[in-house]
Write a structure and sequence with these properties.
Elements lengths: L7 H12 L4 E3 L11 E7 L4 E3 L5 E13 L8 H14 L4 E3 L4 E15 L5 E12 L1
């Protein structure tokens, strides 16, 4: 396995799309204007851990960012946030989900990195680390 072949964000985007996530998903191609009222962004978070002695195992994190436009009052739209979050509960109900490409993604529901507003102007944001491994 070559490190250039590792693409966890693209694979996770496909897994989410196949599962039925309907929000726009960006993987490094997010525009600077004209964003939808709710969207998901996937980015690799941190370095990769490799163990080439064990069949080329690669591990790391994908940062899943759920972004929901603030209400006209400036408050968070917690109803929409919770609806989007509940989608991931079903996807990871067995603790992990495998892709056709050999990736396994797992979610620790207590691994919310950030929850609040202000990271992106006009949006509330939840940042969640999703662990991936590929062999």
């Amino acid at each position: 396995m070559k490190l250039s072949d590792i693409n966890p964000t693209g694979v996770l985007k496909q897994v989410l799309t196949d599962y039925g996530v309907t929000q726009k998903i960006y993987t490094g191609d997010k525009p600077t204007s004209g964003l939808p009222s709710e969207y998901i962004e996937l980015r690799q978070n941190g370095g990769l851990k490799t163990n080439l002695s064990k069949l080329g195992l690669v591990q790391g994190y994908v940062l899943l960012s759920i972004n929901v436009k603030l209400l006209t009052t400036g408050g968070r739209n917690t109803v929409r946030e919770n609806i989007i979050l509940s989608t991931f509960d079903g996807l990871f109900k067995d603790g992990a989900v495998a892709s056709k490409d050999g990736y396994v993604f797992s979610l620790d529901p207590e691994n919310i990195v950030y929850s609040g507003g202000g990271i992106y102007e006009g949006y509330s944001t939840k940042l969640i680390n999703i662990t991936f491994r590929k062999s």
